[in-house]
Amino acid sequence: MAAASSARHASLSSPPSSSSSSISQSRATAAAASPRSPSPRSSPRRSGSVLEHTDRAGKVDIGKEIEQQRRQRQDLESKAKSGLVGFDKFVRSNPLTDRFKVLCFHHVELWCGDATNTWRRFSWGLGMPLVAKSDQTTGNHVYCSYALQSEDLVLVFSAPYSDKHRYQPASPPPHPAMTKPAMLDFFDAHGLAVRAVGVRVEDAATAFRTSVEHGAIAVLEPTTMHDVHSGQELVLSEVALYGDVVLRFVSGGFDGPFLPGYERVSPPPFSSSPSGLGVGLCRLDHAVGNVHNLLDAARYVAGFTGFHEFAEFTAEDIGTCESGLNSMVLASNNEMVLLPMNEPVHGTRRKSQIQTYLDHNEGPGLQHLAISCRDIFHTLREMRMRSHIGGFEFMPRPNKKYYKDLPERIGSSLTPEQVEMCEELGILVDKDDQGILLQIFTKPVGDRPTLFLEIIQRVGCMEENVQRGGCGGFGKGNFSALFKSIEDYEKTLER
Ligand SMILES: [Fe+2]
C-alpha cells in the first residue's frame, strides 16, 4: 500500500498547495482556458432558473419550446445534408432544450450469462462492494441481479434462471420485463453487454410519455415499485436508446439500495475508504454507444430527449490512424448526462474499430462506460495491481515521445512529477478550453472486442464546488495515440 499512499499525496484533486506534485482546480482552469478564451459556451448554462421553459406560474411556454425544437431540428437536418463540421469548427452552446427534467445517471445494468461470477470480477477489479441483491434467496426465481456501488456509481449484473425450475414465488420479481427468453436472446446476440443506462429524472412517467410522443420506441410502460419495508416508491420506465440498449428513467423517493424489491447486503464486504479495497471511483461520467448511422441515431435520441449537441469529432480529427470514426456527444441541460455516439467511417486502410464492434456485438450497442475518480494516480495503482489477478487490463501505454511532448501540448497544467506518474501508469492527458482530462482505457472486459471501460479524472471548471459536466473534453488530443493502440490491439486478434 506504500505506492498507493504516495499516489494519494500527489493527488490532482488536492487543494492548492506549494508541493510540486499537487495541482489545484483553479490552476488547471486558468492554464486550460488560456489558448482559446473567451469560452465558446453560451451563458444560458449558468442561468439555472430557465432549465424548464416555464413561466412563474409553472405553465409551459409553448412558443419558446416550439422555437427551440425547430432550431434543434434544423441544426441536425443541416448536418444530415452537409455532414459533421468536426471539432475545430463546432461552436458549443447550451440551448437548454430538454423535453423533461433530467438530473443525473442513476445506474447501468449489464445482462450476463452468469451474474454471480461477473459481479465478483467487477467488484474486485473496480473496488466496488455488493450493496443489494435480488435472487432466489430473496424470493426472485426468474432472474438473479446484483448491484455494486462506489459513491454515485452503481453497476448492476443480472442473468436469468432456468424456467424449467418452477417455483411459485411469494411476490413477483422487481422488474416485470426481465424474462428468461429476453435475457438469453440478448446474451446470445451480444455476449456480456450493457442492457440499460439508468437516468434519474424528475418524473419517469412524464419522461416516458413525452419521449414516446416525440418518436421514442416504448419498451417498458411506467411501473411503480413499492418497498414493503419503508413504504417508499420508485417509478421505472424504459425506451429504446440504440440497438438492444434501453434508456431507463428512474424517479421517486426511494432511498434504499438500488431499487425496491432488492435486499440490502450489509455490511459491505469491503470498505471504499483509502485503507480498504475500494479504488475511489465516484460516478458515471459518460456512456458511449456505437451505431451504424450517427446522424439518424442522434436525431432519434435528441428528438425525444431534447438533448443538445455538446461536441463532435470527425475522422479528420482523429489524425493519422488507419481506421476511422465520426462521433457526436449529446448532453442534458445540466450536462451531467453525456451520451456520445460513434459511427464507422469506411474506405480506410483497416476496418473501422466501430465496424469491428458492430460485427462482434451483432449490431449497435454500448461501447464504453467512462467512470470518474478524484485521484487517478491512486485509482490506477490499485487497479493495475489487480490487472493480472482477476481485475481489468489496460490498453498499451503510448510511446515515450507522447510523454516527452506532453508539457508542450498541455502547458504547465501538470508538474514534471505528475507527468512522470502519468507515464508510469500509462495515463493519457488532454485539455480543452475549460479544463484538463486524464484518461485511460481498459481492454475489452468480456470475451468479445466490444465493451470496455474508461477511467478518467477531470480537473477544473468548478462552480460553487460543483464541477461542470464534460470539463476537459473527451480526449480529442489523444485520439491519434489511443486509436493507434486500439488498432495494435485488434491486430493481436487477427492471428
Ligand atoms: Fe470516453
TrEMBL record:
Q: Give UniProt keywords alphabetically.
A: Cytoplasm, Dioxygenase, Iron, Metal-binding, Oxidoreductase, Phenylalanine catabolism, Repeat, Tyrosine catabolism
Q: Which PROSITE patterns match?
A: VOC
Pathway membership, UniProt: Cofactor biosynthesis; prenylquinone biosynthesis; Amino-acid degradation; L-phenylalanine degradation; acetoacetate and fumarate from L-phenylalanine: step 3/6
- Which spans does this entry mark as compositional bias, Basic and acidic residues? 52-78
Return the EC number.
Answer: 1.13.11.27
In the UniProt record, does the keyword Oxidoreductase occur? yes
- Gene3D superfamilies the record matches: 2,3-Dihydroxybiphenyl 1,2-Dioxygenase, domain 1
Any one GO cellular component localisation term in the record: cytoplasm
Q: What class of enzyme is it?
A: oxidoreductase
Q: Where is the composition biased (Low complexity)?
A: 1-49
Q: Which cofactor does it need?
A: Fe cation
Q: Where is this region: Disordered?
A: 1-78
- Every VOC domain range: 104-252, 283-443
Q: Which subcellular locations apply to this protein?
A: Cytoplasm
- Which Gene Ontology BP annotations are present? L-phenylalanine catabolic process; L-tyrosine catabolic process
Task: Write out the GO MF terms.
Answer: 4-hydroxyphenylpyruvate dioxygenase activity; metal ion binding
Regarding protein family, the annotation reads: Belongs to the 4HPPD family.
Q: Which NCBIfam families match?
A: 4HPPD (TIGR01263)
Q: What is this protein called?
A: 4-hydroxyphenylpyruvate dioxygenase
Q: Which organism is it from?
A: Selaginella moellendorffii
